[in-house]
Amino acid sequence: MPEITYLEALREGLREEMRRDERVFILGEDVGTYGGAFKVTEGFIEEFGKNRIVDTPIAEAAIVGAAAGAAHMGLRPVAEMQFIDFISCAYDMLTNYVATARYRAGLPTPMVVRGPCGGYVRGGPFHSQNPEAAFLHTPGLKIVCPATARDAKGLIKAAIRDDDPVLYFEHKYLYRRIKETLPEDEDIVTPIGKARIAREGRDLSIITWSAMVWKALEAAERLEREDGVSVEVLDLRTLLPMDDEAILATVRKTNKVLIAHEDTRTGGVAGEITARINERAFEWLDGPVLRVTAADVPLPYAPTLEDYVLPQTEDLVQVARKLAAY
Amino acid sequence: MPEITYLEALREGLREEMRRDERVFILGEDVGTYGGAFKVTEGFIEEFGKNRIVDTPIAEAAIVGAAAGAAHMGLRPVAEMQFIDFISCAYDMLTNYVATARYRAGLPTPMVVRGPCGGYVRGGPFHSQNPEAAFLHTPGLKIVCPATARDAKGLIKAAIRDDDPVLYFEHKYLYRRIKETLPEDEDIVTPIGKARIAREGRDLSIITWSAMVWKALEAAERLEREDGVSVEVLDLRTLLPMDDEAILATVRKTNKVLIAHEDTRTGGVAGEITARINERAFEWLDGPVLRVTAADVPLPYAPTLEDYVLPQTEDLVQVARKLAAY
Amino acid sequence: MTSRAASVAAASPPIPAGLRREQLVELYYWLRLTRTLEEKLTNLYRQGKVIGGLFRSLGQEADSVGSAYALRPADFLSPLIRNLGSMLVKGAEPLQIVRQYMAKAESPTRGRELNIHFGDLEKGYVGQISHLGDMVPVMAGIALSFKMRKEPRVCLVYVGDGATSTGAFHEGINFAAVQRLPMVIIVENNGWAYSTRTEQQTAVKQLVDKAKGYGIPGERVDGNDVLVVYEVTKRAVEKARAGGGVTLLELMTYRRKGHAEHDAQGYQPKEEIARWEANDPIDRYDRQLDETGWVTREERAAVRARIETEVDAVIAQAENEPFPEPETALDGVYAHPARIEPLWYRHA
Amino acid sequence: MTSRAASVAAASPPIPAGLRREQLVELYYWLRLTRTLEEKLTNLYRQGKVIGGLFRSLGQEADSVGSAYALRPADFLSPLIRNLGSMLVKGAEPLQIVRQYMAKAESPTRGRELNIHFGDLEKGYVGQISHLGDMVPVMAGIALSFKMRKEPRVCLVYVGDGATSTGAFHEGINFAAVQRLPMVIIVENNGWAYSTRTEQQTAVKQLVDKAKGYGIPGERVDGNDVLVVYEVTKRAVEKARAGGGVTLLELMTYRRKGHAEHDAQGYQPKEEIARWEANDPIDRYDRQLDETGWVTREERAAVRARIETEVDAVIAQAENEPFPEPETALDGVYAHPARIEPLWYRHA
Ligand SMILES: Cc1ncc(C[n+]2csc(CCOP(=O)(O)OP(=O)(O)O)c2C)c(N)n1
Ligand SMILES: Cc1ncc(C[n+]2csc(CCOP(=O)(O)OP(=O)(O)O)c2C)c(N)n1
Ligand SMILES: [Mg+2]
Ligand SMILES: [Mg+2]
C-alpha cells in the first residue's frame, strides 16, 4: 500500500463515492476536462462522463443553487468552489436557501460544497481565506475541515453520505505536503461531529483543526522536549455540529486550554468554543482560555507580511508557556 | 420639543447630514418617491432631488458596489437594504471588495449600508435577521446597532462622517415603539466604538445591544424589585470595533456577566465577547459568562414559535438569578 | 335560459389550443378560486387574522393559472408571491393556503413560513424564499436532474419584472441556457416592482429582449388572456420537454393592488389602474365564454357557488385550529439530529 | 534604408481614426512594453523571483492598449488580470509592476496584493479584486459620481468572456444601463475562461448580443487590430461622455498562453494557438507600419531598444529591494485607527 497525499485521499474518497452511488455527481468550474484547478477531479470525466461531471459557467450562486435543486430531487451533488474564497458569492444561496430548506419546507438537501481554503501559500487576500466563521453561525449547515489524509478521505465520504448540506473545507497547504498510507480495503468514513485526539497530553490542551493541527503538534513536541510540558492536541475535524463532549473531556483533563485557528481573530470560531467551555466547564479551568489566531487584517501577499499575520508554531509555544505557568 | 420615534430620529439624522454635506447621497430600492419600505427617507426626494436620492434596481451587490465606487471618488453614499436580510446578496461585495479596499489599495471608502433588522415582528425567516455576526469577522468594516432614538440619530450621523465603511443595523421593532425627546439645537453625534451604560448596577452585568437593551432593562427592574439584585446594563452600541474598556470595566465592577443577543447562539457575537472577557479579565470573574440568545434555528413565523425561539425578558431573569446565586 | 345557452353552444366556434370544454371549466374554476381565496384572505387580514403581510394577484390571475395549466403532473414550477393561482393548479389546497397565512400548526410549513412560501415535491412545486432570483438557479438544478436522468419533465419558473435585476436570476438562467435544460422562465411583467417602474429596473424596451442576451428564444404575449397564456406556455413547455432548451416568456399584466395590503399604492396613477381594471382577465374570460358559449353562465355560476362554500368551509376550519406547539420549533433543522436540544435555561 | 523609409513615408496613406504619427509611435511603445515586460517577468517567474502566479496577455495586447488609449487622463478604467497594457497606458509604471509581482515593500500595495491588482486614483485606474464581476458595480459607482457631479468623465470596464456569467457583472451593467451612466464595458473575448470554452459560459453566439439584454448598443470588432480597437472604443467613450449612456464592446482575441504560467494549457488545440499566433496583434501592427511607412523600422527598433534598457533597469532596481517590514501588515485596515494593535503575544 503506497503512501498517498491529502489531495489524493480526497480524490479517492470522491471517486469511491461516485462508484458506490450513481446519484453522486460533481459540478463546478473547470472540474471536467481540466480536472479542477488543483486536479482534484483529474480523470473523473473520463471515468464518469459529462453527465456526472458538469463544467459550469463562472457563477457560484448558480452552482450552489443548482446543486440544491438537484439534491431536492434525490441526487447527491458535490459542488466545487475553485478557490473557497469564491464561496462568498454563494453566501446568500447557502445561508438563506440551502441551510433553511429542510426547516422551512421539509426539502431534503443532501449536498456538499467543497474547495481549497487556507494560507501559508503566498496567495494573497483572495486565494487564502478560511470561511468557517462565516458559516458557523448558520443553523442547517454542517462544516468539516480535514487535517489528515485519512480524514480528507473519510470526511468527504461522510459528507456525501450525510443527509444534510455539508461544507467541506480542504486546506491547500496540505494538498501535497501531507502523506499517509491508507488501507485500500477499508471503507474509510470519518463520522461527522466527532473530534479526534491528535496527541494525548496532561498539562494543557490545544484545540484546533485543519492545517493548524500540524503546527500544534510541532509546538507540543517542542514543549515536551524543552519544557517537559505535556500537551494534548484536539483536532475538531467537524466545526458544526461541534463535538462538545470531546472539548469538555480535554478541558476536564488538562484544565488549561489554548484554541488555535488560522483565520482572523475577531468573530472567529475560537470565540464560540471559548463560550461553550466557559458555560459548561468554568469550574474546571485553571486559567483563561487563550487564543492564537491570525491578526485582524486581510491576508497580505508578501512573505514577510503573511508570515507575520498568520499564526506560527512559535506563537503556540509562547502562549502555551504562559498558560502552563499560569 | 416634541417626542420623536427611533425611526424619526434616524430620518432626522440622515436629513441633517444631507443638508450639512452635499457629498452625502442615498441609494436603494424604493427610497425615492416611495420614501423606502418603512418610510425612513420619506420626503427626501422632494427636498434633495433625484440626483441625491437614487432609486435602484433590485440588485444589492450593485447597490453596495456602486456605493463603494462613489465613495472612492469622495462622495458619502448611504445605501439602504430594504430589509437587512437582503444584505446577504451583497456579502461578497462587502467582505471582499469594500472591507479590503483601503488595506489592499489605499482606496478611501466612506460609506454606510443601513437597513431594518430584527425579529419580534412575525416577519418569518427572511424579514427578521440580525446579520451582525456575519460581518463581525471582517476586518475593515465597522458595525453599529442603535438601541435608543438618540443613538439612532447619533450613530447614523457618526457613520456618515466616518472615513471607514459602516454597517448600520436599525431594529424595526423599535422603529415606532421607542420615543424620546431630543434637543433640536444639539448636533447629536454618538462616537463609534463607545458603549453606553444603560443602567448602573453592582451585582451583575448584562452586556447587550439593539432591541435586547430594552428587555435587559425590564429584567434589571424585575431583579431589583423581586430579588434585590442590582444589575448593570451595558449597551454596546458599536460591535466593531468593540469597546473593550467598557466591557472590562463592567466585568471588574460586578464580576458576573450575562451576554444577551437576539441572534442565534452558535457563532453569535456573544462568543467573541466571552473570549475577550476570558482573556483579559479571567481573574475578575466570580462565575461563568452566560449567554441568552435565540435558539439555533431559522426564525419561524408563527407567534408561538417565534416567541419560543427568541430570547425573552423571562429568560434574562432566569439566567441572571442563576448567575447571581453562583 | 338553458335552452338559449344550449343553442349558443351549438353555434360555438371551435375551442383553441386543443383544449376540451371541461378544461375551460377547470380554467374558470382556478381563476375564480384564486380571486375568491385572496378576497376572503383580505377580509381575514383586515380582521387581523392573517399574521404577516398579504400579497394580492388581483388582475394577474390569468398568467399564473394559464401557464401552470400547461404543465403535466410530473413537471415542476416555482411560484413567487403573486403566483397563488399556479400553486392551486399544481395541487396546493385552499386549506393549506389559509392555514399558512394564519400560521397554524397544520400549515404546510407547520407555521414556520408565511403566505404562500411552501412547496410539495410530490405535486411538483417548490417553496420559494423571499430573496428574489434565488429560485432560478434552484429550478435549474431540478431541471438538471431531469436531464441527467433523461426524464421527460419540465421546470416552470416565475420571476417578476423587478427580479430580473438580480444576480441570481442571471446566473440561473445563463446556467440553464448553456446546459439546454428543460426549463421555461416566465417573466411576469406587471409594470411595477414595489414602487419602482420597469424603466427603473431595466433599460430594455421589453423584457423579452433579455432572452437575446442568453441565446434563448423569447415570446411576449398578453398575460391577461388565459387561453393565450396557456397556448404559448404549452408550446414552450413541450419544446423544452423535447430537448429544445430554455424559453423566456414575458407575460404582460398589471399589479392592480399595492405591493402588499399595507401599501396605499399612491404612486400608481388612478387612470392606469382603471385602464387595467377594464382589462380584467377574469371578466375577459367571462365575456369570451359568453360570446362563444363554450361554458354557459349557469355552469359558471355553479362553479362560483361551489368555490364560495368551499373556501368558507376551509376558513371556518382553519380559524379554529391552534398555533404550533412552541417546542416544535426545534424540529427539522437537520435530518440528523432530527430535533436540536432546547437552550438549557428553557428546561426549567 | 533611411532614404527608402522616407520615400515610403512620402507615399504613406492617411492615418486613420484622427491619430497623429507620434501617437502611432506611442501605441507601438505600449504594445511592445506590455509584451517585453511580461516576457521578462516570465523569466523572473522561472527563476522563482515572482512570488505568486504570473498571468500573460500574449496576443491580447492590442485590445488593452488600443482601448485604454482612447481615454482622457481624467477618465477611469478597471483592468482585469490580462489588461496590463491598459494600466501602462493609464500611467502605471513598469517599476510598479515588477515590484508588485515581487511583493516588494515599495510596491504600489506595499506587498499586500499580487500581480497587477493595484490602482491609482490620480491616474485613473482602480485596483481589481479576484472575484470576477465585482468591478462592474464599483465602476458603475464611479461613473455615477461623474454623472452626479456633471463631470465630463467616462469609465472603461474590462471583463473576460467568462466573467460575463457572474451575477455581479449583470447587476452592475444593468444598473449602469438604467442610470445611463458614462461607461463603456469591454468584453475581452479570448475564447477561453481557464479551461472553459465560451460555449460553456453562454449560449449566445456572440457575446455582443448581451448588450440587447440590457437595452444598450453593442459592437463586436477585431481585438487584434490596435487601430480598430482604438477607433471603436473612442467612439463609445465620446458617446458616453456626451451623455449617450453605456456601450458594450466585444473585442475578439485569443489567449495564447495558459490561464497562468503554471497551466500547461493541454486543453487548447495546438492548431488553434498556431492560427492565432499568425494573427499576432503586434506583428500585424508592425506589418501595417511597414506597408504604410507611418513609422519607420528604425524608429521602431529604437523604441524596442529603449524598452529593453528601461525594463532591465527596472528589474535590476526592484530585485535588490527588500520585502515589507512585518509590522506594516497592521497599517491601514481602517482610516481610524490607522494601525491596529499587534496580538499581545507578538509584543514579546
Ligand atoms: C434580493 C431581494 N431584494 C429585495 C427584496 C424586497 N422585495 C420584495 S418584493 C420586491 C419587488 C418585486 O418586484 P417584482 O419582481 O416585479 O415582483 P412583483 O412584486 O411585481 O410581483 C422587492 C424589492 C427581495 N425580496 N429580495
Ligand atoms: C467569482 C469568481 N469565481 C471564480 C474565479 C476563478 N477564476 C479566476 S480567472 C477565471 C477564468 C476567467 O475567464 P475570463 O473571464 O474569460 O478571463 P480570462 O482569464 O480569459 O482573461 C476563473 C474561473 C474568480 N476569480 N472569481
Ligand atoms: Mg413586478
Ligand atoms: Mg476569457
Secondary-structure-based class of chain C equals alpha/beta
Strand arrangement across the biggest beta sheet of chain C: 1-2-3-7-6
End-to-end C-alpha gap of chain C: 71 Å
Structural class of chain A: alpha/beta
What number is the mean pLDDT of chain A? 98
Care to describe what's here?
The complex is a heterotetramer, with two copies of chain A (326 residues) and two copies of chain C (348 residues). With 326 residues, chain A is an alpha/beta fold. Chain A contains twelve helices and 14 strands. A seven-stranded mixed β-sheet of chain A has the order 3-2-4-5-7-6-12, sandwiched between helices. A five-stranded mixed β-sheet of chain A has the order 9-11-10-13-14, with helices on both faces. In chain A, strands 1-8 form a two-stranded antiparallel sheet. The termini of chain A are far apart. In chain A, 74% of the residues are buried. The mean pLDDT of chain A is 98. Chain C has 348 residues and is α/β, with parallel strands linked by helices. Helices cover 42% and strands 9% of the residues of chain C. In chain C, the strands form two sheets. Chain C has a five-stranded parallel β-sheet with strand order 1-2-3-7-6, sandwiched between helices. In chain C, a hairpin with a 2-residue loop joins strand 4 and strand 5. Chains in contact: A-B, A-C, A-D, B-C, B-D, C-D. Chains B and D meet through helix 3, helix 4 and helix 5 of B and helix 6 and helix 7 of D. The structure holds thiamine diphosphate (2 copies) and magnesium ion (2 copies).
